[in-house]
Specification:
alpha+beta; two-stranded antiparallel ribbon; about 170 residues; 6 strands; four-stranded mixed sheet; 7 helices
Length: about 170
Amino acid sequence: CKVRFNNFLDNELTFVIFLVVYISQLYHYLKLFIMKRREPVSNIMTKDVITLNINDNLYEAERLFKKYHIRHIPVVKKDTIIGMLSLTDLQRLSFADSYDDSGVIDKTIFDMLSVGQIMAKKPESVSSMSMIKDAAALLASKEFHALPVVDNDKLVGIVTTTDLLKYLLEQY
C-alpha cells in the first residue's frame, strides 16, 4: 500500500510540475502574442521609400516600378505626400497593349499624361506609431493595398499588404 501511495505522489508531483511548466510556457506565448498585437507600423514598414514628383513622366514611373519590383509609389512635394501611384494605375492606361504589340498606344498615352494626372490624390495615411492592426483594418476596408506612413506631415515610410502578410507569416 505504501508503494502505491508513493507512486501516486510521484505521478501527482510529475503532473503538477508538468502543469506548472505548461502554464508558464502558455503565459509566455500569450504574452508574446498580446505584445505583437500592439506593435507599431514602424516595425514592418519600408523606410527607404522610392518616390515620384508630381511632374515626373509616366516613363519614369514605369522604370521605377520595374527596377525596384514594387507596386506603389508615393508622390511627394519635397517630403510631403500629395498622392499615390500604383502599378495598376499604369496598367489601366495600357489596356490596349494586349491588342497591339507595337507599343505605339502606350507611347502616345504616356506622352500625353503625367504622374500628377493619374495618381490617387490625398491618399489616406497612418503614422509610424499606428498599430499594425489598425493599418490592416484600414487596408481591409478600402480598395487599395498600400498606405504612406507620415509623421509630422513628412513621409517616413510605406506599409503594404505584402508587409502585413509577411508579418502574419512570422506569427506562425
